[in-house]
Structures are given as structure tokens and as C-alpha cells.
Design a protein that fits this description.
- The protein is of the alpha/beta class.
- It has a single domain (about 10-20, about 30-230), classed as Leucine Aminopeptidase, subunit E, domain 1 (3-Layer(aba) Sandwich).
- The chain is built from eight helices and six strands; from the N terminus they run αβαβαβαβααβαβα.
- Strands 3-2-1-4-6-5 form a six-stranded mixed beta sheet, with helices on both faces.
- α2 (about 50-65) packs across α3.
- The termini are far apart.
- The relative contact order is 0.18.
- Bound molecules: ligand AR6.
Length: about 230
């Protein structure tokens, strides 16, 4: 479960998530509610054991490349905990780049409860999927399939039966899905990142040449898919 309800004012990420919430509360009519927003988890850095320092570099580079190609769309990196190392690394690296902070920011919360639990409406969410595009398996994949119900599994199967590392696929969510009705999520984009965990299929072991290339491809494909939804 998320610790988003426990304030830790010394943490920069906390301040930012509060800042976003405050903006929305002050706007009254919630104009930010209509801005196309992609919430995405850090691909490959938990179960797939990808190095977080290298991953943070790739996230910031690909965000910088794509953030101005998605019209008024916003990109939000999400993680469960205020202590998230990937969020702090990305935050500090992004601050040194010329990235519009209203178009890209980090947010602490459960990606399946961003509107109801955090006041942040994201019409599109990304999933760190497995190659079979199957529910379960823990992590963010299990959480998203659980929250979306059978509708997501059915809609996913209509689109594809598997995914190659570095690829992403956008799945429109039926309005009957609880994730649609409760959270306003209209699309889930499944992304398969590089796997460095020997206990999972297609392990790259320590081949970070390939790993970094595949992770870059994965984020590019994710952001391109989001751009086509926004257009
Ligand atoms: N909300 C937001 N972020 C989350 C949530 C959540 N509910 N749950 C986890 N995270 P992981 P991977 C963060 O392991 O490394 C699965 O079993 C988490 O803290 O989900 O790409 C699949 O089936 C981390 O920062 O994905 C694959 O087999 C990030 O999401 C495999 O794991 C990604 O963690 C994929 O491994």
C-alpha cells in the first residue's frame, strides 16, 4: 500500500506531490483534469533489477526528447513511496535540464489510485508488463490488472498475445472497467523493459550495452504511443 497519506515535509518528492495537489485544489473547477496526462512507473528497476542510476539517466533523456512532442500532454513518473530512490534521482537530474516542470514531474502514489487517492487525473497509465502480457506476477503489473478487472485482460488479448523487450502497446480500456469509472483511465500502455533478473525470462545478465538500448527503446515506444493517443 502507498504511504502517500504520511506527510514527510523534508522530502522533496513530498513537496512536489503536495504542490500538484494544491494547484488542483485551488483551481476549483479542476482545469488540470482535462490535460492529457501519462502516469508511468519506473520500468525494469524493481523485479527486473535494472540499475537505478542508469535508468534515471535514460528516463530524463527520453523525457527531454519527447516532452515537447506531445502537445499539451504531461508526463508523470510515479512510485509508491516517499523514499523512492528512482524518484529522487530523476528529480535531481531533471532539475538540471531544460524541462518544463509543469509538463514533467514526479508523484508519490499508487498508479491505480491517482485520482481517487492523490487528486491527480491521469487519463493514460503505463504498465511494466511481462512478455506474455499476463495478469499477476507482483509489482505494478499485478496492481494494474487487479484494479482494471477482467476488462483489461480481454482488451489486451484482442491487441496482442506477447510483447518483445523494448516495445509498448496501447490498450483502450472499456468504460465498464473500474479503473475507467473510478480513476478516469481510458488507456493502459503495456511496456516490456529489459530484464536483468536471472530468475525471469530473457535475462540480459550484466549486458548493460543491450540493457540501456532496450530501456531507451521502451521509453521511446511508450511516449510515442502516448503521443498518438493525445493527437
Ligand atoms: N503504483 C506505482 N508504482 C508501483 C506500483 C504501484 N501500484 N507497484 C510497483 N510500483 P515492477 P519491473 C513501482 O517490479 O521491474 C512483474 O511481475 C515499483 O516500485 O513492477 O519492470 C511483471 O509481470 C518500481 O519502481 O516492474 C514483470 O514480470 C516500478 O513500479 C516484472 O514484474 C516497477 O517495478 C517487471 O519488472
Amino acid at each position: 500500500a502507498s504511504d502517500k497519506t504520511i506527510p514527510e515535509p523534508s522530502n522533496e518528492t513530498t513537496k512536489e506531490s503536495h504542490h500538484v495537489n494544491e494547484c488542483q485544489e485551488q483551481s476549483g473547477t479542476n482545469t488540470l483534469d482535462t490535460v492529457p496526462t501519462l502516469a508511468f512507473p519506473s520500468i525494469s528497476t524493481a523485479d527486473f533489477q535494472f540499475n537505478i542510476e542508469k535508468a534515471s539517466e535514460i528516463i530524463v533523456e527520453t523525457v527531454e526528447e519527447f516532452v515537447n512532442k506531445i502537445g499539451n500532454g504531461r508526463l508523470v513518473l510515479v512510485d509508491l513511496s516517499h523514499g523512492s530512490k528512482i524518484l529522487s534521482l530523476v528529480k535531481s537530474k531533471a532539475a538540471k535540464k531544460n524541462i518544463d516542470p509543469t509538463k514533467f514531474f514526479t508523484f508519490v502514489g499508487d498508479i491505480t489510485k491517482l485520482r481517487s487517492g492523490g487528486g491527480l487525473h491521469c487519463n493514460v497509465i503505463a504498465n511494466a508488463a511481462n512478455w506474455r502480457l499476463k495478469p499477476g506476477g507482483g509489482g505494478v503489473n499485478a496492481a494494474i490488472f487487479d484494479a482494471a478487472g477482467q476488462d483489461l485482460d480481454t482488451a489486451t488479448k484482442k491487441r496482442a498475445g506477447s510483447l518483445a523487450p523494448g516495445k509498448a502497446i496501447a490498450v483502450p480500456l472499456p468504460s465498464t472497467s473500474p479503473l475507467f469509472s473510478k480513476e478516469g483511465v481510458t488507456h493502459v500502455i503495456h511496456v516490456l523493459g529489459p530484464n536483468m533478473n536471472p530468475k525471469r525470462p530473457n535475462c540480459l545478465k550484466d549486458d548493460y550495452n543491450t540493457g540501456c538500448k532496450v530501456l531507451r527503446e521502451a521509453y521511446s515506444s511508450l511516449f510515442e504511443n502516448f503521443a498518438s493517443i493525445v493527437r
